[in-house]
Amino acid sequence: MPFDTTLSACVGTDCQLCPVRTCMARRGSADAAAAWSSILAPRMAAMPGAAALHRAGDKMKAVFSVRGGCIKAYTIDADGNERIRGFYLPGDLVGLDGFGGGVCLSTAAAVVPSQVCVVPVCELRKLMQRWPSVSLSLMEQTSRELGVALAMSGDYSAEQRLAAFLLHMRDRLAVGGAMRLPMAQRDVGSYLRLATETVCRTLKSMERRGWLSLSDKNIRILDEAGLHELADVVGIFHAPAGLSKAA
Amino acid sequence: MPFDTTLSACVGTDCQLCPVRTCMARRGSADAAAAWSSILAPRMAAMPGAAALHRAGDKMKAVFSVRGGCIKAYTIDADGNERIRGFYLPGDLVGLDGFGGGVCLSTAAAVVPSQVCVVPVCELRKLMQRWPSVSLSLMEQTSRELGVALAMSGDYSAEQRLAAFLLHMRDRLAVGGAMRLPMAQRDVGSYLRLATETVCRTLKSMERRGWLSLSDKNIRILDEAGLHELADVVGIFHAPAGLSKAA
DNA sequence: GGATTTCCATGATCTGGATCAAGGCGGCCG
DNA sequence: CGGCCGCCTTGATCCAGATCATGGAAATCC
């Protein structure tokens, strides 16, 4: 297990001591970070299979800042199947889609043993009143997530969507060229609107062509250019490092 | 033409006199509305076929508040085809997806003769610093758009997507039970990831079943319950009036 | 440590919606 | 006013990816 899920691993809630560099609380001034610390409810462990962090339809009481692990947001359709709307990794905020309406639009649950900081929305709103920089970075975060969602909602082939997904994840969790996907292929398929079998076949086909290597859930991207060519149409993805073409 | 597109129809830029009730500028206090007025660049007419308001890849210089008509946001794929990411109606803000990254993620152009208020982002950021309520409502707007985008990105049948789209549009532009879609069926298809032929066939099929009546671009919804049953899985849509089931 | 369950993998078949084709109809421009 | 072009409509065919079926390999649970 790459991540220590016990609460004792990090006592207190001083955001300035937190190792998660990309967290909202670390994006503004030191003062703002201190303010973040002051409003956080106690941190929580979230386990796969355990109770959801919140459910679709609930009144929105808190957003969650992911500290470790991976959280999925999903709805349940009429047949009882999950439809995954997003994966959230350390530094991400879960629940921004429900902020506007005050109601959770999806259910949030852990994909692997995870840890989240609980940010009560009433406190968050107060913080936004006091610190314009908090509002601004929250707004930017939501805007970026919107950009990704709009890009993903387009009509692309299984290969294109998977390539875009892999590059996106690579940017976020690769260390030294390799990464370990926290979620099962079924979950990837649910998110990308693909059957599990299609995810598997497409990955294998990419491996056969030498674009990547697979072993268990570990993926190493070998031919980035090849994937890029497929994913470029989708846009947005892998934008952070300034890798995307002007197009 | 239901909407007067000449600039002379509304001189000056006093938001408090503007008839668009759902505009951002009208959502906060009177003071905040006055502040909005003060930062607006001159209003613009936008014509179909004329120059785009902005293009994907451009540096983000302004967002646009739709005053009349309909604006579409789209990207162009490798084959030169439009992929529509959203339609914006009076009261909507165009460009929120690019706010975070500072780069326009899509091209924005008029679907019908339209009018937009130009909101320079540098001024908008200053306004957000000064008026927390502006930040808050901008954040809420973006959050709602995110909710819709996430819902739309799911895997639904042609019928379900079209039903959800019709109900969504109905909520936004119906007067007395009937509405006139501003965009062509081809555009609807591009947005919903459907071929033009499928949009046409599905609409006709719904008409045959007595769920709606079609004449030209005018649509009257006859069996709301039927459409709702289809669209409910999609979620989010038609939420404003509290019509959606708890699920 | 054996049983159960979940996940990954691969082949065979099926299908919703795309694509191709072709005609009518209205709107716009010269 | 007549010609052209873009939209809507309907039918025939095709295909990417879903679904069904089956088996092996890990992980999880008594």
CATH-assigned homologous superfamily of the largest domain in chain A? Jelly Rolls
| Mean residue pLDDT of chain A | 87
Distance between the first and last residues' Cα of chain A: 41 Å
Just name the CATH architecture of the largest domain in chain A.
Answer: Sandwich
Strand and helix order of chain A: HEEEEEHHHEHHEEH
- The radius of gyration over CA of chain A amounts to 18 Å
User: Which pair of chains has the greatest number of interface residues, and how are they split between the two chains?
Assistant: A-B, 47 and 47 residues
Beta-strand percentage of chain A? 15-25%
From the structure provided, what is the oligomeric state, counting identical versus distinct chains? homodimer
How much helical structure, as a percent, in the residues of chain A? 25-40%
Largest sheet of chain A: 5 strands, antiparallel
Structural domain count of chain A: 2
Number of helices, counting only DSSP H or I runs of 4 residues or more of chain A: 7
CATH topology of the largest domain in chain A: Jelly Rolls
- The rough form of chain A would be described as globular
Derived structural class of chain A? alpha+beta
